[in-house]
Design goal:
15% strand; single chain; globular; 8 helices; 2 domains; alpha/beta; TIM Barrel; 3-stranded parallel β-sheet
């Protein structure tokens, strides 16, 4: 979670979390968007909350983050009746802690923006006090997530942009990138684990983590994928550091155990597995399986519960 966030400030505005698909860069009519979507969402927070700030994420789920964010914010402020500022995630979390999470009135308790949508579409729901209590108390028992890479957002004009999966960002000169533009950033995994555990205080599990790469059979008939071993070793070491810092990390699974067609690119040549499958991007091959060097290395890691990473 190193990407910049935009947050909205208004006097006597609720400390909420305004959500919605806000792809600011692609808006052809920003003035209309601000008037009909953004300001209405902010006003909804003002009508339903009792604090002072609203956070607007730059990018949602697997949507692209906003590039040239300073320019975008400047354009928004030409049309909005509110003041938009650029903030960082740590700054937002400090505000959240200062106001105490158990008195939070934003989306973590109920999606206040939904009330605006219900009113716009003439939807009426019979919500009881018990319903509200159940929604407040209902939560997951563990926090699971996938981690492959980190992204960079900058206020400066950049020429070197990298993209991985559905997210794009500026190139980080301090990191190495795969053939598909995915950054190797184990420190980012440690950072995310510690920030999320500090926020939710429930057990965590990394359910996907791995390196997509081109694997070739060497002259000795084997596949020496030391690059994959290095990637996994660094991320396991990052998890160990997070555990030492107090994170309750209960599990870890890689992606994946065997080569398969990449969901992101539709390629067989983008391989993640410990086991090589004889198949190419055109569907040709015998489907013969062959353990890679990483297979035997990870077997040793599992047997030692992560103690032997050599």
């Amino acid at each position: 979670m190193r990407s910049l966030l935009i947050y909205k400030y208004m006097h006597k505005l609720s400390f909420g979390y305004y959500t919605g698909q806000i792809d600011l860069v692609s808006k052809h009519n920003l003035k209309e968007f601000v008037a009909n979507r953004l300001d209405k969402g902010i006003q909804s927070e003002a009508d339903n909350g009792n604090n002072s700030d609203v956070l607007i994420p730059s990018g949602i789920d697997q949507m692209n983050i906003v590039h040239n964010i300073a320019k975008t914010v400047s354009e928004i402020n030409k049309y909005s009746k509110n003041d938009v500022e650029i903030s960082t995630y740590p700054k937002f979390m400090n505000l959240l802690r200062d106001k105490k999470l158990n008195t939070y009135q934003g989306e973590l308790r109920h999606p206040t923006y939904a009330k605006r949508l219900w009113n716009e579409h003439n939807v009426h729901l019979d919500i009881t006090d018990q319903d509200r209590k159940d929604l407040l108390e209902g939560k997951v028992d563990i926090y699971t997530f996938s981690y492959y890479m980190s992204n960079v957002v900058t206020t400066h004009e950049v020429k070197d942009k990298m993209s991985g999966n559905f997210a794009a960002g500026a190139k980080n000169p301090y990191l190495k990138y795969s053939e598909w533009g995915w950054a190797t950033d184990p420190d980012g995994l440690q950072y995310y684990l510690e920030v999320m555990y500090d926020r939710y205080d429930i057990p965590m599990m990394v359910v996907e983590n791995g390196l997509g790469a081109v694997d070739k059979i060497s002259d000795d008939g084997k596949i020496h994928d030391n690059y994959r071993i290095d990637y996994l070793r660094m991320h396991i070491e990052a998890m160990e550091r997070a555990i030492d810092d107090g994170v309750d990390l209960i599990g870890y699974t890689t992606w994946g155990c065997i080569d398969l067609v990449s969901a992101g690119t539709g390629q067989m040549s983008k391989r993640y597995g410990f086991i090589y499958v004889d198949r190419d991007d055109e569907g040709r091959g015998s489907l013969k399986r062959m353990p890679k060097d990483s297979f035997y290395w990870y077997k040793k890691v599992i047997e030692s519960n992560g103690k032997d990473l050599a």
